[in-house]
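The material for today's practical consists of a large collection of protein records. There is nothing in a record beyond a sequence line and a structure line. As an example, a complete record with its sequence and its structure tokens follows:
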Amino acid sequence: MNAMNARQWIRDKIQNRQWPIRVRILLTLIFMTTAALLTVAIAFNICIQGYVRTRESAQLDAISRGIDRRAGSRKIPPERERDNDHNNFDAPDGPPLLNPEPDVRGRKFDGGQDKITGARGNAVALDRNGTVRDALDGDPEIGEELSRWFSGGHTLSEKIKKQEISLESGDYLISVIWDDTRDAWWVCYVDITAIQAFTRQINFVLCLIILAAMMVSVFLSRRFARSFAEPIQSLSAFAAEIGRGDFQRREFRFQDEEFTRLGASMNHMADALEKANQKQEMFFQNVSHELRTPLTSIRGNAEGIVYGIMDPRVSGEIILSEADRLGGFVEDILYLSRMGKAAPEGEIFPVDTRDILSLCVSEQRPEAERRGIAFDFDFDETPVMLSIRERDARQLFGNLLSNAIRYADKKILLSCHEIRAEGCIAISVSDDGPGISPEDMPYIFERFYKGAGGKHGIGLSIVQSVIDAYHGKVIVQNHHGAVFEIRFPAARNQE
């Protein structure tokens, strides 16, 4: 990737606000590492500079107080006298000496050396023109450098308090005091050259640590990002293969448990999609087969009428029968598709289940009588209320009755009771037929699954769809025939 393409790539990513996960992790870790180390470095500098400046300022104050006592131009409060005793350097007493000599205690004027910072301090007297009059026990060269510094455009003034300056010999912290008795300026100074060099060395080391940490963070973030990106890329490729219709399972070995779970979930999804795809193919095959039979019959009878080789009345009855069969089949398919919608058509009202069952029996009684089948009823005397759409209830019980009529020998028993202790209603449809074979039992509610004597393989699928839609459950067993027992929450418990 050349420079132009790289700039265009970065521009596109900024505009789209989308970055590869490796880049995002890399930038995040570098930023966090740099921010943390910079915070540490800044905090260290603030703390060490504050501490050192406090020590240097205290040392400079002690030198200034010593000059005050020698000059006699200022009286130092007792508390400042006491504070001075706690400093880590020697403080002078008595009037200033233009020619240093031992004082009454045998000590010369000396700013001393701070035991912690190692900085040394002293004082130098300058006349009004900035010429050195007395350097006390300090280095005369420092006095000359201070003289040149003030002669070079800097004004001698007592406003100069703890000012940091740079001379040829190093860096100093200075304060200026006027001495009326000597008609001179006392410039108190502390050599902070070593401290400044130490601070710069610490900052240099911190910069090296930051650079090293950034390099380590780049290395670690690349490995860390790769551990995230590679599983995602593998799973994305698997998802793309699923999208192309390849539902073969993949074996994933990831270090992270979450990615392993995601891979297992995607394999489960692939299995489910493969089954759904197989069911869809079977659906189209079954629909084509179920539609072909009535259409072939209708076409054959219609051609017989057209060519005058069949009785129009007989052929017309056959055509009407096959058209009804075809219409019922199409209606069942449409009903199944409507049941899959998020908001099915119609409103839910409490209905008396006994009335719905009686209505479904009256609609199918002619077919039952033609087969010589009778109905027995075991209903509660009081209303058994169920909150359901009437259309759904008629589809549910109508398909159960139709299925029972197809397999019953002589009798069908319908029962409907409210079980108050459990807050539900129980409806059962039993026939005295041969029952359901163990081989067919696990598949009877699957679409287009037809056992021995089955019709379209849709009726019981509709039954299961309605039961699921209203949070019910169905129990199927063989007891002197097939028994379908359905339980729904009672109407008063429905929302």
Q: What stands out?
A: The first strand starts at residue 121 and ends at 126. The chain has a mean pLDDT of 77.
